[in-house]
Every structure is written in structure tokens, then in C-alpha cells.
């Protein structure tokens, strides 16, 4: 590592951990520079003595660290979630690595926000040379590879993870089968009931759209089956149903799981030829026509289906009190702003057009009043329902309670430890109020508020 890179890594490390770290529970200190000397990987270990899973994992991690990982170039920094310093010292006394001083609560909280730590134990692995993230799931890496045979566990690139050979029906094909194509990555398994129910729908849709799209699009089956025999039996059923797509070799799927953070199945993700995510909720587009290819999600999604709201700063347009024509005017004005931020992955946008359980919950969490609906007699109605009894008059018409105020804007920043900001559309309804709020958020001039639990 060159001197420039070394200085950059030390600066990055100091920002994350401070200049001093505890070396022993008694309080012996070590400098950041000394801690990083000769290291390849830094593991931030978020844990606490009161947490049973933590107490179960800590001895496993300690053994792996002492026997293999330390000598291979790994250092671990304990980031305590204990409730007091006495508990911290007692727990840290069982650990053979370093620790962030317990008194530095701000630094610990900043690290938790940076790595989006939502539970413990969590082991985040970072490249010591340049500060880049290796994985937020270091716990699995250690459990699967305690001796560090694959250390430093640098993630494979998209093309490395896919490899160069695929099954196509009963034949084997090369990487030319995917080159230049938009891909649908289908994570599924025969033992999964929801997968078996979804697969025939996916197969029919695939069969229909391939007639129009041809070589522009391909699906790759990424098996979560327990054996290669089970995978191939399940894959045959895909082909029989019309889904004669590609199948990844049985031993390759785990690498893609890590890249796309697949936590459950069935999962269907649309990616471009370079592996960049086009639509993380591919299941939602099954049935969409080929004319909508490559099925990018709308720039402004529905708040009824807030995909990604917990992981990405989100602008929520609360339009429940606006007439439909006004709603459409606002959405048209804001769409260019939303598209730009969506493509840069800085922020996602949602709109709430009608009162719903989701919009009501978000308003309540932000301390705002809910918007209600009333019938012709002025009675509040919880939800709009079609009449269950046949009538020549048809179902009762539900009217929206209108407001002369400009619509409310809620900027949720859940990754920032549940922060939120409240604003208003500009009276012109031209998107300028939205842009001003975004500029204020970036410039840290907005009043930060905390979501209620």
C-alpha cells in the first residue's frame, strides 16, 4: 500500500473510530495508527453482554480471531451496546481484540448509522487499506470460514459471480448467453411453497414476453435447493411450464446472494448487463407488457408499497387532501426531480393519494394528524368498500375531505437513526418546494426530528 493510500486509510479510520482505542478492559490505550499497522481487514463488532446471541457468537469469533484471523491481518473493534461502563468492562474482558471507548457514545452511534446496524450481534468488515465495505454480514463469513481460507473475503464482481457456464434446458452454454442482456435473477427453491406457486406465473410471463423481446432479456435461475439433484429436478419443472431460461451452476448461487443481499425466496431482481439493479421488486412486474421493458420502477412510487423506505432516504408526498387533477399536476412537476435522485440512488419518492393504513401510520409516527374521508352526510368513513349487496344505486360514494392548504411533505431518513423532516409544497405546486426541502436536507439546514417508536 502506497503512502497516499495509507494516509487516506488512516484518515478514514480516525473518522470512524477516533484517535484512541482501548486495548484492554483495564483501559490501556493504543493509537489508531498502531491499530491499523499491517492490517488487511477491520471488523466492527456490535455486541452486548445482555444479548444471548452475542454471548453465543463472541467465543466463536474469539477462537477464530486468535487461531487464524489475527495472523492473517484482521483486527476487530468492539462497539459496545451495553447499558453501562461496568457491563462493558466485564464483557470486554472476555475479548482478545480492541474496543471503542465506552464513553464515546456519539462515535458508536455514528458507526451504527453508517453501517445501518439494526440488530446485534453484527460484525461489519471493512478493507483496512481504503476503508471500503467488504460485507455487513461478517458473522456469516466467520461461521462458514473460521480459519480464513478465503480471507479477506473481498466480494466477487457481478461477472465473477455469474461465471461463464450455464444450463439451458439439457445443454450447457457459455457467457455469450447473457452478454449485453438485461437479466432477471430468480432466486428460488423447490422446497419453498411460495416459490412453487410463483414459478408457473413467471414461466408464462417469460414465454409471452420473449416472443417480443427476443435476445434483449433473459432469466437466470439461482437455486436455493439443498442439492444439485433437487435443483435440476426443479429446473426441469420450470422448462416444462415454459420457463426454459438459464440456470446457474449449483455452487455459484451464494456469491450472487451476497451481492444482492437476498434474504428470502422467491426473489426476482431485474439487472442490466453490468449487474446494476434496475428493479429490486421484479415479482411486482410479472404480468407487465414487453412494451414497458426494462420495467424500471416509477420515479414516484405508491406509499401503499414503500419498497426500500427503511434503507434509503425517502420523500413522501402526502396528497390525500388534494383532488385527483391536482395530484396529477403535482406528480408531473415533481417527477423529473424524483428521476434524477432515483438514478443517483440518493433518495426515493413515494406519493400517498388516498388515506391508508401506511399513510396514517407514517403521519402518526411523525406526530401529524391523519386525513379522513367522509360520506355525503359528513360521516367519517374508515375505508372505501364496494357494496356487498346488489343495488340499482350501486355502492355508496365516498368523498375526500379537501383542504385549502398546500400538501405536506415528509422526508424520512430511516438510515439516519430514524430521522424525519416536515415541509410543505410551494403554493405554485411546481416542485420548487420539494427541491428546496431536498437542498435544505443536503445542507443540513432543516430541523431534524426523531421518529416515535
Summarize the structure.
The chain has 453 residues and is α/β, with parallel strands linked by helices. The protein has three domains: 3-144, Glutaredoxin (3-Layer(aba) Sandwich), CATH 3.40.30; 158-292, Glutaredoxin; 300-383 and 396-450, Glutaredoxin. Helix content is 34%, strand content 21%.
Summarize this structure as a short list of keywords or feature phrases.
453 residues; alpha/beta; Glutaredoxin; 3 domains; seven-stranded mixed β-sheet; six-stranded mixed β-sheet; 23 strands; flat; Thioredoxin-like_sf; thioredoxin-disulfide reductase (NADPH) activity
Q: How would you write the strand order of the largest sheet?
A: 9-8-12-11-10-13-14
Note the gap between the termini. Answer: 45 Å
- Which architecture of the largest domain would the CATH scheme give at its second level? 3-Layer(aba) Sandwich
Q: Give the overall silhouette.
A: flat
Helix content percent band:
25-40%
Poorly predicted segments: 1-14, 374-400
CATH homologous group name of the largest domain: Glutaredoxin
C-alpha-based Rg, rounded:
26 Å
Strand content: 15-25%
- Helix count equals 13
Highest-level CATH class of the largest domain: Alpha Beta
